[in-house]
Automatic annotation (TrEMBL):
<dbReference type="Pfam" id="PF10188">
    <property type="entry name" value="Oscp1"/>
</dbReference>
<dbReference type="InterPro" id="IPR019332">
    <property type="entry name" value="OSCP1"/>
</dbReference>
<dbReference type="GO" id="GO:0005886">
    <property type="term" value="C:plasma membrane"/>
</dbReference>
<protein>
    <recommendedName>
        <fullName>Protein OSCP1</fullName>
    </recommendedName>
</protein>
<dbReference type="GO" id="GO:0005737">
    <property type="term" value="C:cytoplasm"/>
</dbReference>
Amino acid sequence: MSMHATPILYLNMGGEMLYVLRQRLKAQKVDIDKTVQGQSILNDVTAALLNVTALSSVFKKSPVIAVASLRPTLECAALSSIMRLDNSSMDKLFDLMTMMVKYQLSVVTGPREVILLTLNHIDAMRDMVSNPTGQECVALVHQMVVDFYSDLTCDEVWKTRYDCLQELEPYRVRVSILLRLGLQNEDTSFNLTLNKYDEKYEEHRHILANQKIKDVNLNQNCKGSFQLFGDRETLLGRNIYSSTYGMTEKLKPKQHDSNFLKDCGTKAELGMLATQLGTEETYERPFTLNLFSNEEETSNNKNKCNVDKNNFESRELEVEKTKINEDYKNKLDNVYADFHENEQEKVARSMDLLDLLDEIE
């Protein structure tokens, strides 16, 4: 059994959750880059996903944590912003996150692509947060992933993928966007579609199996960069709800610029200045963010989240002796503290996550 499977499940499912939230904000005409509520939601959820204590548990070298055990942490992250979800909404959101990750891990063509699709999700997190300290935190998590898997052999990563799929096997739900794109069948099985990225690992397994991921010859079929602003090559792990999904163009030049994080921080500061000057929307404008069709409100959400937090905290006590990497932990402690402090000013309103972007049948 692999001892490295949990980060793949946790980070990819968290990334898929952010994709849904971003798309629904856009559908509700909430300007993510300019409005306070749009920035607040994505910043808060990302900060909760990358909480130092949660990552300490996730990056522990141990047998894979069951998806059911990861769910409370993911739910609390979703509820960490100004949004609310009822039980039915959370169930459907969780099914969507789970099935998207199951699809991606089912169709990967090799072990490097397993890491690359995870980095695609991390890239998206970095692009979504407007807080420069949040972007720094995401960059640290990127390096943690690279360091966590680079010294593993191709076969070890491939077995890690197998363990993840075994954990996801009981989840069988039809997702309309996958059905529309021809990526899923009515029986919930997946179709393998040919993309430009293909490691052909099974074909070359006898050669690559014992090679470390970081030592694989990229001139063969194993392309895709692990660098912070590298081109991942694969579509897996990108935002499938985006209108540009499937396009093959390279990353925009600014994403290769070493000053990208600094530029994003400058943009965020200018946005805050504009707000203070009164050129941005700062007044109270009530609205609901529709994700699910069930519009019943439940008063048990907070109680459920608090119970889940208590259960998670009890598990965290058992993990306190775990040391991911003290240097990483100290850095993340400092960055997350700044990130959390900068997000203290929240919009005093509630948002209902009702109607999911894509109906789950």
